[in-house]
Amino acid sequence: MLKTLFFVFLITISFAIARCQTGRVLAPDEDQYFEALPFQMPSISLPGFSDRTLDIMVFGAVADGHTDNAEAINRAIPVYVTHYRQGTC
Questions:
Q1: pLDDT tens-digit profile of 35-82?
Q2: How far apart are CA 1 and CA 8, in angstroms?
Q3: How many domains does the chain have?
Q4: For residues 56 and 71, what is the distance between their CA atoms, to the nearest angstrom?
Q5: 10: domain range?
Q6: Nearest to 53 by CA among 75, 84, 86, 87
Q7: Residue 60 CB neighbours (<10 A)
């Protein structure tokens, strides 16, 4: 029993050290997963985000970490859609 626990501990420490050195979870090369697929995988690109911002505190949101700001967000969404999408802001 003690040998088994020691072995599990050693393996856990080895993975932790390897993860700290690489900054990633140990996994086989991701490309090998795509090569083994029986179909062509389309390329995936990162989504683009607008540089426009909307302060939801103007709509009644409270930045205290406890208040439910759902109503303020719901009031801000139509304003964003109306003004930002049409280019008026």
A1: 777 878 777 777 777 777 788 999 999 999 999 999 999 999 998 888
A2: 11
A3: 1
A4: 10
A5: 2-40+49-84
A6: 84
A7: 13
In a domain, 25, yes or no: yes
The residue whose two tokens read 């683009």 is 48
pLDDT, tens digit (0-9, with 9 covering 90-100), for 7-37: 677 677 766 665 555 455 545 566 676 777 7
Chain centroid to Cα 4, Å, comes to 37
One-letter-per-residue 3-state SS of 3-19: HHHHHHHHHHHHHHHHH
- Give the length of the chain: 89
Give kind and range of the element (H or E) at residue 36: none
Distances, alpha carbon 76 to alpha carbons 27, 28, 37, 49, in Å: 42, 44, 43, 17
